[in-house]
Amino acid sequence: MALDIKAITAKVSRLQTRYARRDARMRDVLSARQGDISKVYPSMFSEEYPKPLVANMIDVAARDLAEAMAPLPAFNCSASNMVSDSARKAADKRGRIANYYVDRSKLQVQMYTGADWFNTYGMLIGRIDMDYENNEPTISLINPFGAYPEIDRFGRCISLTQIVGMDAESLASMFPEHANQILNKNLYTPGSPYLSLVRYHDKDQDVLYCPERKDLILSRTPNPIGECLVSVKMRSSIDGEARGQFDDIFGFFSCTRTRNIGSCSGFDGKTQSYDIGLIGIESSCLCIKADLFFL
What we know:
40% of the residues lie in helices and 23% in strands. It is an alpha+beta fold. The protein folds into 2 domains: 5-259, no CATH class; 261-295. The strands form 3 sheets. Strands 3-4-5-6-7 form a 5-stranded antiparallel β-sheet. The radius of gyration is 26 Å and the shape is globular.
């Protein structure tokens, strides 16, 4: 029996509570990849230097590793009886069909981002979507950040909940038939408010709704296949939770930076902290300015 919107909303709330620690780890590593390590360790930076002064080594390493893992293997179908010409032709036909779906879905292009997600977040999610205009299935890779799969005891995915944030104008352009309810013109808000788009998928249905607009249902489509069309692969971990390749880098980064921080007593008797690395940079700038002054 298909779940109603109230049951789906309650399930989404339970999943967010259950995966709160995982979301915190993903948020920290995303901030590091974007160069905002100061959000994770604000005390490590000063007002004069609020951003890192060196290259983003985590982002560079993640991109290099993703490019090495992204290439897809060859997709070939073999026949049970290679002696028969009809069996070989049928196997060749299945192979061409499989390669057509891979090429039509642009899976090779998606794999560069998918491999990056797998290394960064420790999870890769693939979903089969129905293209009703061309009457064919398409393969899509889903961003694990904000995605909550439910796995049964056999390792099969039974449902997938995905939460994506976007502004109201972008969401209204995607669903113009609900533009008035999404923009909510009767309520005065400066600018375009930031809303959440929730997509719930299981063996019975696909549901898109907006929680901030009183659980406004934007789309509801029954699942004609009758099974969850999602596959989830997780990076191996000791506790079974999704852990990325770079989750443990932050502690090392903090320790190496803490070693360069010292303290001294000023003329007023107060203890002041200083950063040896920043003092070296400031000294170099003063030397360069002095040389330019005497030229």
